[in-house]
């Protein structure tokens, strides 16, 4: 048992990974508390899923325009310095927002401006974050490092809403934004001291893409990813997860649960720790099981996420809703981990930054972009109808995509043997 646990925690043998892991966890707790406090303000001001979707749209548009170029920048620069700059900008943005919420009359358009700034900065921060973890450990520890990194992310996603609920109940949202801004300082200090690796050899700056303008390097990366059938299937399934289920989690669930059960700010924060708790359980499960073929976790993740979303509108109490949101979080985590971990395991090192930008594009841009129309649909046709309809569509499209990939693999295998 001790040997098993030791093998699952092998990345912690590397000092730089340990240090980055713990400061990044604290920073992400601040980020998730910030995100929930901002959602609470929007619901208080506007009270509609469409408004929360519009906020996500404001964040998504700059990310959509910049993030693929962000991946090229990361591949062509010192990733540590890039990330130090992005963290400093995010810290400044959170601290200014804290001041405005506390000392001025915050308006919806203010939040839209801050969301646009955050989206633009994250277009460079997320590819850097996706790239840096595999370079903190030898290749033998890649999968476990990424699994532990996901545990870090979802632990933060669980603790962030809890912290936000406590801080808002005590002093209001401004304190949440202040804590978030200060949380970036530890990450900046640790980044200065990291020694990045490629395999077992230190690399600084990281592996360079071919010479030529950024647009050519971007085209080269996209062509590589979509000409590889295995990578293409994983990217398309990730886009499907993000486009249909992610907006439900970050927009529709929040407005629906608040309207259905009339929660206080503290209760709102507590209840939305449940999907994060489910994701955390999924992260721990994935880390301990250490599947030889991570993509097989989709067999559980996709159908159970669909079922949990479908049955959520049928529950009669907030506690029952919490249980189903936990199952949603658990199942979605397994799906996301299956896809992102297998993408990083299969991608060539020289394309890692651009792969990180594609993954970041899904989470930072496609998901928020889809939140706006899905939020409007929920306002027009009611949240329960939209949740159940999208759950069915997601399950059917995922099945068709998996079937097409299987048939494509069989054709390729026949071609190799002929």
Question: In short, what is this structure?
Answer:
81% of the residues lie in helices and 1% in strands.
The average pLDDT score comes to 83
> What's the CATH topology name?
Growth Hormone, Chain: A
CATH superfamily membership, which one?
MFS general substrate transporter like domains
Largest sheet: 2 strands, antiparallel
Low-confidence stretches: 199-210
Shape assignment:
globular
> Termini distance?
46 Å
- What's the CATH class label? Mainly Alpha
**Helical proportion, percent range:** over 70%
Question: In terms of quaternary structure, what is this?
Answer: single chain
Describe the protein in words.
The protein has about 425 residues and is mainly α. The protein has one domain: MFS general substrate transporter like domains (Growth Hormone, Chain: A). It has helices at about 1-10, 15-45, 50-75, 80-105, 110-130, 140-170, 175-190, 215-225, 230-245, 245-260, 265-270, 275-290, 300-310, 320-345, 350-380, 385-415, and strands at about 195-200, 200. It has a two-stranded antiparallel sheet with strand order 1-2. A hairpin with a 2-residue loop joins strand 1 (about 195-200) and strand 2 (about 200). Helix 12 (about 275-290) packs parallel to helix 14 (about 320-345). The chain is globular. The model is unreliable at about 200-210 (pLDDT under 50).
């Amino acid at each position: 048992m001790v040997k098993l646990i030791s093998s699952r925690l092998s990345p912690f043998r590397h000092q730089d990974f340990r240090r980055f892991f713990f400061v990044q966890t604290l920073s992400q707790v601040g980020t998730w508390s910030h995100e929930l406090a901002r959602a609470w303000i929007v619901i208080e001001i506007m009270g509609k899923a469409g408004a929360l979707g519009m906020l996500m749209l404001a964040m998504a548009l700059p990310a959509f325009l910049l993030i693929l170029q962000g991946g090229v920048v990361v591949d062509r620069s010192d990733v540590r310095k890039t990330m130090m700059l992005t963290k400093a900008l995010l810290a400044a943005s959170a601290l200014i927002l804290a001041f405005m919420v506390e000392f001025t009359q915050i308006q919806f358009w203010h939040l839209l401006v801050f969301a646009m700034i955050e989206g633009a900065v994250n277009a460079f921060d997320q590819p850097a974050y996706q790239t840096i973890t595999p370079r903190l450990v030898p290749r033998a520890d890649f999968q476990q490092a990424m699994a532990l990194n996901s545990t870090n992310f979802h632990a933060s996603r669980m603790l962030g809403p809890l912290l936000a609920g406590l801080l808002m109940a005590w002093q209001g949202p401004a304190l949440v934004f202040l804590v978030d801004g200060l949380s970036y300082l530890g990450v900046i200090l640790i980044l200065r001291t990291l020694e990045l690796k490629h395999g077992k050899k230190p690399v600084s700056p990281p592996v360079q893409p071919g010479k030529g303008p950024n647009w050519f390097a971007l085209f080269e990366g996209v062509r590589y990813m979509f000409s590889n059938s295995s990578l293409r299937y994983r990217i398309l399934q990730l886009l499907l997860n993000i486009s249909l289920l992610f907006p439900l989690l970050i927009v529709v669930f929040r407005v629906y649960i608040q309207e259905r059960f009339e929660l206080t700010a503290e209760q709102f924060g507590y209840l939305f720790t449940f999907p994060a708790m489910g994701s955390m359980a999924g992260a721990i499960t994935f880390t301990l099981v250490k599947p030889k073929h991570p993509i097989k976790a989709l067999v559980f993740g996709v159908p159970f996420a669909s079922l949990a979303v479908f049955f959520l509108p049928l529950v009669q109490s907030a506690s029952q809703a919490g249980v189903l949101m936990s199952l949603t979080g658990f199942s979605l985590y397994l799906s996301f981990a299956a896809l992102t971990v297998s993408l990083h395991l299969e991608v060539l090192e020289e394309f890692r930054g651009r792969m990180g930008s594609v993954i970041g594009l899904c989470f930072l841009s496609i998901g928020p972009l889809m939140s706006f129309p899905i939020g409007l649909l929920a306002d027009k046709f009611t949240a329960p109808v939209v949740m159940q309809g999208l759950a069915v569509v997601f399950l059917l499209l995922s099945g068709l995509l998996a079937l097409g990939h299987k048939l494509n693999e069989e054709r390729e295998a026949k071609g190799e043997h002929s």
